[in-house]
């Protein structure tokens, strides 16, 4: 059974790669997903097309601020940020998960030798436009982003559309996105609220002397970040008394994280008021369904090919392509029905 699933999953990945390569070549892109000089490049969307109307944003701010004290108001400057029009926006959530790697030569007989645990990785992208969705999977972020570019080209989601990525704070992912999509003018990145909150909790736990002090700081810090008041949040951290910090510790690393992701931290409160997403949880859920639920329990370990192949078979099912695949050995490569 394992051999059958691995073989089938590898064939699905090969078909996906072949289809993507053909789409990229047809649109004058190289095999790495980068447009050639002769490729037809999209122009930037006009603000009125890409974003929600300014009147609606102003009304949302006014409605949110009603009945709240000034310190909990959304500031007027928040209206200057970009708030996408869902009708022409493609949302992409990317998540990477590692599962225990299968040992090729068995465990070392040395009783006291500590072996470094190794992992195999899958990257899952949940692509969504309004109520339509598709799941892409592969062995690495660059690989999946190449599949994503091909998917966008194949389904005519480049011209006249806005691309919005929901990510965690990983530098490698941000670098990869910037490098691979620098040719596309209408791309934005939003730092997932849950990961931002967890990062604050983790870093302050390392720095501060106790949970009571940490929780007191978080009660002040998180509302500022929710409102997109990043400068005020940094000032708050800088004003923490040294006696509340562990010896040799500082908040510089958390401040550096804020600064590094400044462009990706919006006014979450206003986005929620407008009915826009703040979370990459759909990507994480897709990763759970494709990988984690099956591969991360009961001491399981996996080969690289087996892990990716099983995720490919599950993705085939989630995309409602199993019937087409079993009957014609091909993929629709379009929104799941």
Protein topology:
Blueprint: H1 2-26, H2 47-50, H3 54-65, E1 89-100, E2 119-129, E3 132-138, H4 141-154, E4 162-167, H5 171-180, E5 187-191, H6 193-207, H7 211-226, H8 230-238, H9 252-260, H10 268-273, H11 281-295, H12 304-318, H13 322-328
Parallel strand pairs: 1-4, 4-5
Antiparallel strand pairs: 1-2, 2-3
Helix pairs in contact: 1-4, 1-12, 4-5, 6-7, 7-8, 11-12
Question: How would you characterize this protein structure?
Answer:
The chain has helices at 2-26, 47-50, 54-65, 141-154, 171-180, 193-207, 211-226, 230-238, 252-260, 268-273, 281-295, 304-318, 322-328, and strands spanning 89-100, 119-129, 132-138, 162-167, 187-191. It has 13 helices and 5 strands. Strands 3-2-1-4-5 form a 5-stranded mixed beta sheet, with helices on both faces. The chain is 47% helix and 12% strand. Strand 2 (119-129) and strand 3 form a beta hairpin. It has 2 domains: 2-33 and 84-101 and 118-192 and 279-328, Nucleotidyltransferase, domain 5; 195-264, no CATH class.
Keywords, please?
globular; 2 domains; single chain; 47% helix; Nucleotidyltransferase, domain 5; alpha/beta
Give a quick rundown of the structure:
With 337 residues, this protein is of the alpha/beta class. It is built from 13 helices and 5 strands.
Instruction: Based on Cα principal axes, name the global outline.
Output: globular
Residue-averaged pLDDT, rounded?
88
Contiguous uncertain segments of 5+ residues: none
Order of helices and strands: HHHEEEHEHEHHHHHHHH
Individual helix count: 13
Give a short account of the largest sheet: 5 strands, mixed
Name of the CATH class of the largest domain: Alpha Beta
Distance between the termini: 28 Å
CATH topology of the largest domain: Nucleotidyltransferase, domain 5
Q: How many structural domains?
A: 2
Q: Strand tally, please? A: 5
CATH architecture of the largest domain: 2-Layer Sandwich
Secondary structure: helix percent: 40-55%
Strand order of the largest sheet: 3-2-1-4-5
Radius of gyration: 23 Å
Structural class by sheet pairing and helices: alpha/beta
Report strand %. 5-15%
């Amino acid at each position: 059974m394992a051999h059958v699933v691995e073989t089938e999953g590898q064939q699905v990945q090969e078909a996906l790669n072949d289809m993507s390569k053909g789409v990229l070549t047809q649109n004058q892109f190289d095999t790495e997903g980068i447009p050639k000089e002769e490729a037809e490049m999209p122009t930037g969307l006009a603000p009125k097309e890409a974003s929600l109307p300014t009147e609606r944003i102003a009304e949302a701010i006014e409605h949110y601020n009603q009945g709240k004290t000034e310190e909990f108001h959304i500031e007027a400057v928040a209206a200057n940020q970009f708030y996408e029009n869902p009708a022409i926006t493609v949302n992409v959530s990317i998540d990477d998960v590692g599962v225990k790697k299968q040992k090729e030569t068995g465990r070392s007989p040395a009783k006291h030798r500590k072996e470094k645990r190794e992992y195999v990785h899958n990257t899952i992208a949940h692509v969504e436009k309004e109520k339509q969705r598709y799941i892409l999977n592969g062995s690495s972020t660059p690989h999946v982003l190449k599949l994503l570019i091909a998917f966008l080209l194949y389904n005519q989601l480049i011209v006249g559309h806005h691309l919005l990525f929901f990510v965690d704070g990983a530098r490698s992912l941000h670098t990869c996105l910037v490098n691979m999509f620098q040719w596309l003018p209408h791309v934005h990145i939003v730092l997932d609220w849950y990961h931002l909150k967890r990062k604050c909790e983790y870093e302050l736990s390392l720095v501060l002397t106790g949970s009571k002090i940490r929780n007191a700081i978080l009660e002040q810090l998180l509302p500022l970040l929710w409102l997109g008041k990043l400068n005020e949040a940094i000032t708050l951290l800088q004003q923490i008394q040294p006696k509340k910090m562990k010896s040799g510790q500082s908040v510089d690393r958390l401040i550096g994280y804020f600064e590094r992701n400044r462009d990706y931290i919006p006014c979450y409160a206003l986005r929620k008021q407008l009915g826009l997403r703040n979370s990459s949880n759909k990507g994480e859920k897709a990763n759970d369904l494709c990988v984690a639920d099956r591969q991360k329990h009961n001491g399981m370990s996996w080969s690289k090919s087996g892990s990716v192949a099983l995720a490919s078979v599950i993705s085939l099912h989630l995309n409602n392509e199993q019937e087409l695949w079993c009957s014609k050995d091909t993929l629709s490569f379009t929104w799941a029905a």
